[in-house]
Amino acid sequence: MEDATVFIAYVVSFSQIYLVWKNHHDLFEKAEVVSQRTFVLNGIWLFFCTLVPFNTRWIGEAPDSLLPELLYVLDLALWSVLFQIMDFSVLKDNPAARPDSTNQKHFRFLLYGGCSGPDPAKTLHDRYVHFYDD
């Protein structure tokens, strides 16, 4: 059973990285200008990307521990939210660009667990992206 847990974590991690690879390519393909703000956001986003294999291994080493599983889920959530913020930043830098398909309210509703309150990606965008305004 331990091997099954590790394999499931690996498949989920690989699937996330594979899908994000394409979305990341599409995000920057529409950008003619990349500001310092977007560059910094991309670096933070890549940091969370690199934590996925670390967290996957940790789950495999401690399959009965809750902490690795919580950090894995937190990492994927932060990774996803940062991608949305990065998309907002690219759109701000490139007003003629079209929003990413995941930058629609109905899609974010599914991504972030059906939040009925303020839009989580937009709230984080307003709070943090303006810190890096040029």
Describe the structure.
There is one protein chain. With 134 residues, this protein is mainly α. Helix content is 73%, strand content 0%. It contains five helices and no strands. The longest helix is centred in the N-terminal third of the chain and has 28 residues, at 2-29.
Helix and strand arrangement:
Layout: H1 2-29, H2 36-61, H3 66-93, H4 105-111, H5 120-128
Helix pairs in contact: 1-2, 1-3, 2-3, 3-5
Task: Briefly say what this structure is.
With 134 residues, the protein is mostly helical. The chain has helices spanning 2-29, 36-61, 66-93, 105-111, 120-128. Residues 113-121 and 127-132 have low confidence and may be disordered.
Give average pLDDT, whole number: 78
**Can you count the helices?**
5
Low-confidence stretches: 113-121, 127-132
* Beta-strand fraction estimate: under 5%
For the report, how would you describe the main beta sheet?
none
Structural class: mainly alpha
- Rg from alpha-carbon coordinates: 16 Å
* Strand element count: 0
Distance between the termini: 52 Å
Compressed to H and E, one letter per element, the order equals: HHHHH
How much helicity do the residues have? over 70%
Which overall shape is indicated by the principal axes computed on the Cα atoms?
elongated
Give short descriptive properties of this protein.
mainly alpha, 134 residues, disordered C terminus
